[in-house]
Every structure is written in C-alpha cells, then in structure tokens.
Design a protein that fits this description.
This protein is an alpha/beta fold and 200 residues long. It contains 8 helices and 9 strands. It has a 5-stranded parallel sheet, with helices on both faces.
C-alpha cells in the first residue's frame, strides 16, 4: 500500500522491495504494485548494491572510487559476551583490515591486557563475571602501561545518563547498538591513526 501511494505521488521514484516473504508474490505482482525490483532476505551487501545499480541504470565501473580508513596493523580488543555481536564486530573490523581479539567479559579482558599490547578496546557494558564499567575502572586506576588505552563503549544502552557514566569512568567514546559501520569507522579513525588506505 505504501509503495502504491508513493508511486502515485512520485511516479519516477524507484522503490526496491526488501523482504523475507518474496515467495508469496510473483515477479509480475511485485512490479504491478510499483516496485522496480526486489531483494530477498537474507541478502549480501554486494547483492543489494548491484540491485540498486541495476534500478538506477548505473554501471558499477562509473561509481566514484572512495578510500576508506584501513588499519592492518592495529590491535583491537573487543570485550563482548554475545556470540552474534562478536561475529558482527568481527565482520565490520575485518572490513577495515583489523583482526580483533575477543574477551567474553571484563575479567578476561584484564588478563589479555596483561599478556599483550592493544591499541584500542571496544567495551560492552552488560556482561557476566565483570561488566564493562568495572573493567574500565580497573584499567583507569591501574599503574600499568595500558591505563591510558582508548576505550570505546559499545552498547545498546544509549540513554544520556549511561553515556555520561561511561565518560565519567574514563571511556573515550560511545557507540550504540546495533553498531553503525560508518560511526564505528569514524570513531576508529579518531582513536587509531590510519596506517594505510585501500580503495573500494
């Protein structure tokens, strides 16, 4: 219904249907409604990009190449207990040339910090054994070399009071979940010096 109304208001607007229930409709039905194309969930970013290019009649080779920060030598510790969130973080960081090390809670993170050097920590807040707040307080109160390491909170709790608490404890920044790739890239660019650039 929304697609039909949009087409009535703006006939030239291209609309792509994104759904996990594509099989309920025939291709003709989808086009009759007003969709220019459709993408079935789950889909890859490459598939979605190609569909957008097809709808807009743009050759992929004509896209202006842009550089993105790349940190092939950066060592990042991700403190996160949820396996799905770990996988998401890993995919995003690998896009930027980073192979992260994971800790399931604050206690594991402190042990890893004693064993190896890291350039930055992405810190979840709500975790068993030792939460992110407590771990950050331990790090900032220590007399060890890692006491000043950049710490970025990465949590679904985005209320003002929570963000202020993170900053008061000594964290350097806050990223809300679900994590936005551009926001993550921006924060890493701020707290990690770009060592190289790659073209996409």
């Amino acid at each position: 219904e929304v697609a039909r109304q949009i087409k009535e208001m703006s006939p030239t607007t291209k609309i792509i249907l994104v759904s996990g229930y594509i099989q309920q409709f025939s291709a003709d039905e989808i086009l009759d409604i007003g969709f220019a194309a459709y993408v079935e969930k789950p889909f890859s970013s490459t598939e979605l990009l190609q569909k957008i290019l097809d709808v807009l009649n743009i050759e992929q080779d004509t896209i202006i190449e842009q550089s993105k920060p790349n940190f092939p030598h950066a060592s990042v510790l991700v403190v996160e207990d949820n396996l799905i969130n770990q996988s998401i973080a890993e995919c995003m960081l690998e896009e930027l040339g980073i192979t992260p090390i994971f800790a399931n809670n604050g206690q594991e993170a402190l042990k890893l910090l004693d064993e190896q050097n890291f350039d930055l920590i992405l810190m979840d807040l709500l975790m068993p054994v030792m939460d992110g707040h407590t771990a950050t307080q331990y790090i900032r109160a220590s007399d060890k070399p890692y006491k000043d390491i950049p710490i970025i909170a990465m949590t679904a709790n985005v209320v003002v009071e929570e963000i202020k608490a993170c900053m008061d404890e000594g964290m350097n920044a806050h990223i809300g979940k679900p994590v936005d790739f551009n926001n993550l890239t921006s924060q890493l660019s701020k707290w990690l010096p770009a060592q190289d650039e790659t073209v996409i």
